[in-house]
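Example 3.
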Amino acid sequence: MSFAEVSATAAMVVGAVAIIAAFSIGDARRRALVTGVLTALCGFSGLLAASGVLATGRPVHAEFPHLLPFAGLSFRLDPLGAVFVLAVGGVVTAAAVYGIGYTRDHLSGRSFQALVPAFALTLLLVPAASSMGTFLVFWELMALTSLLLVLAEQRRSPEARDAAMWYGVMTHLGFIALLLMFSLLAAHSGNGSFLAIERSSSSMDPALRSLVFILAVVGFGSKAGMVPLHAWLPRAHPEAPSHVSALMSGVMVKLGVYGIVRVGFGLLGGGPSWWWVVLLVLGAASALFGILQAIASSDLKRMLAYSTTENIGLILIGVGAAGLFTTTGHPILAAAALGAVLLHVINHAAFKALLFLAAGSVVHGAGERNLDRLGGLMRRMPVTGAMFALGAVAIAALPPLNGFASEWLLLQSLIHGADSQALVVAIAVPLAIAVVALTAGLTAATFVKATGTGFLALPRSPAAEAATESPRSMLVGMGFLASVCVLLGVGVGVLGAGIGRAVAAVGGVRKPAPFRVHGSTLSPPWQVVGTSMALAAALVLGVGVIMVLLRFLPSGGRRRRADNWGCGRTQQTARMEYTASSFAEPLVRVFDDVLHPDLDIDVTHRQESQYYVEKIRLRLGIKDAFEERLYRPVLNGIHAWGIWARRLQNGSVHRYLGYAFAALIILLVATR
Amino acid sequence: MSLLAKMIRTGRVTETPDPSTDAQVLPAAEPFRRSIQVREVDAGSCNGCELEIASAFGPVYDAERYGVRLVASPRHADVLCVTGPVTHNMATPLVKTYEATPAPKLVVAVGDCARNCGVFAGGYGVAGAVSDFVPVDLEIPGCPPSPDDLLRGFRRLTGR
Amino acid sequence: MNTTRALVPILQLLLVFVGGPLIVGVIRKVRARLEGRVGAPIHQPLRDLRKLFAKERIAPEHASWVFVIAPAVLMTSAAVTAVLVPMVSTVSPFAQVSDLVTITALLLLGTVALALGALDPGTAFGGMGASREMTIAALTEPTLLLSVAAISILTGTTNLPGAINEIIDRPGSVSSIGYVLALVALGIATLAESTRLPVDNPNTHLELTMVHEAMVLEYAGPDLALVETGSSMRLVIFLGLLANLLVPWGIATGSGVAELAVGTLTFGLKIGVLAVALSVFEVFTAKVRLFRVPELLALSLVLSFLGVITSVVHP
């Protein structure tokens, strides 16, 4: 058996043992420790298996024909799926270790501890599924386990129940779309296995192919958190326990992207340009809307959830661009765009999970999630603060960390692709560049806000003032992801060959030729390694040299600790600092047509005179525009339809029997 | 274009200094090596001195040519120019401004009020002269001191 | 000559390091002359910096390591950008790495570092400056990257030395209206990013009108020197970039010593001319109200977008 096969089997076995251990160990602390360690090992084995597949390019097969009625389970982990399993494995490892410290006090119940490894196993198995039945079974298991995990803290917060309801309904609506889609594909090919579908899909009727694609976008897009099907994401991700949020935001939404890539490029083998333009538009809308909502949000975890929508938007822009380049005849650029997408999948998993884990650490240590009531945490929780700052630099796509590499590659492929004879490309790609650039700038602003108001300066509430650092296992979990961010930033070449094989494994995007085209200087990602390492070294060295040189100054490098300069005011209090809402106010004002902020000012005058003010109360609320404009009318319509349909239920048994009889006649006639 | 025409027509209005205004460099000003950043602090003046200081940095007298520049924050400053008698309300802010300035630093008391409370001596709002609160290194007498006097004082700091 | 190739980054770094304060001095001098004054000598900012290194370092009580490290990060990002952007020569050991997208990201790194350093002391002015600066930076990003796209479409590459070589060899490839639009947009973005009028007044003393200055109110002594130098280096980098994209002739394309000397002289001349033009422009311009700045930046975005479209349609 090859290294990949051994690791894959180990992952499954260890995961199963973890679930059993969660149910059988009596002592709560020991249960959390053992389950955490076992889940981490399971994730790490998955990571090893994926790297094995990526290193050799040879897929790993497994068939279990009797486990499921009719079709059985069949798995095939090819390099494309391996990229996603790599991300899953890494995040599971970190989240599981983190969970040891996070859950030992209040979430150490048997069912919760068993659900986490179950969720991890489904996440590892979905990208490996190679038949319709397998995929749908594990997709549904993934949704169910995560739904139960979102409900884990429902006794503490009633919002969790609301979030779980939204999540449950939307994920199952998506599931219906996926079921329809796979049924269409399988009906045409006669067999549910992906290989058979791939072979037969080229002979499908074009209208049917488009329908399949639309269903895939709807089903997978809602899981990915794509606008306008994103409403569950900013509700469910903040309410889940933080390591579960990391798993959901870091890797589960990526599986939606995996689905779109697998169906669009792999199973269907590519399609007309309008498919990809639709993806580009949806991606651009998700990116812009997500980041604007993030910048307007003061809740730390909700901000991170909306930022996930933004990154998914960027990824979908990349997928759309890749498809567009394939259809208009630029296979090299398509490969570059797809490579950027896969690289961003891994990078985003790393830094988003890191940010969620750090946010969870803040909630654990300070008990507060609202940025307007945090502050001063950098000195009270130094490791968490440093981890969050690192994650913030990574997500803002700044050198020398990993976010920069994938954003660079995406921009390069878009910039080189803008020059094209096809009109649709000439218009769509520059717009995509503008959107990517704007979201990059807005992300930087958002995370300066989060880091600056949440961690720096003075604490704004007693809870923040009393904050303490988190237990060591949580810090280790975060440290693992932080080192991954640094490693992928400095040495992105480590992944280069693997991503190349993954791109080649995606049907419909032909094997990438050497990227150096005559006259152009687009370098393949693994030759960016020279760039990133040199850049990282230069930056770190520069800062270090300057800090050392400062010690040779006449002042000796020592700093006098002094009060702030506040124009002579007597005392610095936390009320004088900028809050997160005030920091974001200029940007909210610029984009108020999209955000529609609700400003409520309530002035109480003194009893003695109308000219003296006793109290002013300001309320600034920002609602989700899609929910207001899209969901509310749809839900109202469904509600109205439901009320109308009640007329059919008048209580008469005769009428009900009549309905059943009519349905029977119709079915018999239709399936004659 | 009319503004440009006016600029060309007006030309240079700065007056060349009187040679008698050349004076010795203050020993305490040696570390600054001809670069002085000034933060002006109004500790309770009637604004007469402020108008003269503004004029000293204006086109006719142009203190900038000697290497003196006005800055907004005492953290960026080397010299504090304090005007007016120190009132009760401005006592603490003045001391805080002095503490906020990084060493080496100098304080210049501009005008008679800063030196010895001038015409406001004994007033109910006056807490004392500037030297009662922060150490003063240079005094520029006058009520208000003319921009020439101010330039003489600044040139003692920059040595130009 | 490998030694002269290795010399280029050091030469560029020194030029930008010394040239930054000198350019600030030139701008102040030109402004003074137009105002009818004499003004300080051109090398006065260098004197100011020398004095600042001898002053005391102060850190606010509540600040963390972010405040301490921010000036160093700003300075380093400016220094690395100075080495990457071809100013005196297109031949450098780092020519392959010198990419317009990378340079935009490095400049954003400097901005983010300064903004975090401003938020750390917890003063209201620092927060205000950081908030305004990040708003302006966020809205300038699309302009910068779309101008990059337009330039790379016309020259065929995003690699800066490659693009400049292409413009020198084939000036006809960039004689397109798209290029002009892209450079105008880049010019507006330069004014925004280096915090000059009409976006921000670098000489203001009123905190409510400050953007960049408000972020540095807490820095003293050597930290202030680092921040000031870093900011002036960024200004020189932007001016150098604009100059070399507009009029690249004179830049050294080989590695001979004579070519390097010519390149240095022409670089000095070009940024000198641009600095004088900037100063004259500032004298005749008033600062735009903060909430009208997004409109100005939207204008530059539209111009750069048109630049891209026309470059594609009419190469």
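The first strand of chain C starts at residue 57 and ends at 60. Chain C has eleven helices and one strand.
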